[in-house]
Amino acid sequence: MERSFANGGSTANKLSSAWVRAIALLVITIAIVLSAFHETVGSFINTWSTSDTFAHGFLILPIVLWLIWQKRHGLIAMTPAPTVFPVILLWAVGFIWIISDQVGVLVVQQLALVTIIIGIVWAILGHQIAKYLIFPLFFLFFSVPLGEELIPSMMEFTADFTVQMIRLSGIPVYREGLFFSLPSGDWSVVKACSGIRYLIASVTLGFLFAYITYTSNLRRIVFIIASIIVPIIANGVRAYIIVMLGHLSGMTLAVGVDHLIYGWLFFGIVMLLLFWLGSLWREDRPEGSKKQDVEAIAVASPPAPSLARNMTVFSALIISTLVWPVFAGYLENKSLPSADDPLLVSPEVLGNWHLADTSDLPWQPGYQGYEQAVTAHYSNHEEDIFIYLLVYRNQRQGQELINSANQLIAKDDKAWRRVAHGIVEARALGSTFPVKQALLRSPGGDLLTWHWNRVGGVDTINAYQAKLIEAKEKILGRSGDGIAIFVAVPQAPNTDRQSLLQDIGSELVAWLENTKEQ
Asked: Is the pTM of this model over 0.85?
């Protein structure tokens, strides 16, 4: 069949009507889906509005639309060919969304919603067009506020890199965790020093630059890898330069607002150099190649779909996507908190330990959103141990056990700092399980702490396992309650407190298990 785009023949009219119908279905379907998933949509906007790290999310959709506009000639040469194949995948994505909704994992909900939007485009426009738009559609994922889970690792790397560079510079430095001291003053690596903002900005721009600048996949991959590695190393160098500026100036430079100014200025210079070097190997497409591509696409494009086929795909999309928010509403109503839920009460005795005065606890975990806090001071007349149980019942967004805002030390707690941490094995009820161990330091003394979570009767430190157990419990119609457990003992110099923690830890688990059965 001959296709003519220059003289406006009947085939062109069919193509035009097919596109009008496809665009109308796209707009209607996406509008309905976004309305149904309005809470997830709101989480995008809220994060973009309140976080400097993810403020670029507002720019992603305009960039995607611009990328699609650049391909408009090729798109016009194609014919939308609706397909039900993506609908099968959308059922799996919807199931992932409902699990993440039940356990309050926003980032997975957001990834699922973006995938659903991409699946809708794929289903309504067909395989050929979806493949042609693969990068613009993929770029939508950069709207998801993803990456904060890397902050602890990046903080550790920044501290390691900075301290090592200071030592190579011949300056004595003493380090405790993320804190280190020079003869001129004290420094610490905080969240803002992790470099996550630089990394996310660099990777987002790196993907876009590589796609626009190169045609070779090898060059694209190399530049993307560079856009990941360079900001991580650059952030370490930035931190080292700031510390050295402070040290050499007698702590008069780079210790206030200028600290951030120098950091962004340095990052800007590094990024300019990276993109300038990348532009030296740019690849321009030969003249006339776009026209040849359009002609080849026109020959391979399928015939216009029937109205019945369009409506079949539209109906399948609506059913496969709207079922999940409806199901979520059903589960939410089913698991409303009960006023009859019993409160935990500290036992008078735990093994050989007896409840003592709890009015003066040395430290409080930096957790929030819990329904009940059970704190207790136990003594065996020789040693003191402190227990903190933070209970999360019928967990929901903002009131959940696993949350990035929950930290061992509260953000505004200036008295305590973590100087060492690791993982040890605890024993209880004939089995072992890992717990997080940390040494906390304050002017008043040190605390050795153990911390783990208990969800659905399972003791774990794995956040993903805790979330999966919570999801299973909720989908089965149970509450999915969780408890953050902390045990702390004063740490005297050159003493072993492991046996004390082991003793009280096993007694605590046995008591919780007995309480659950009652």
From this structure: no
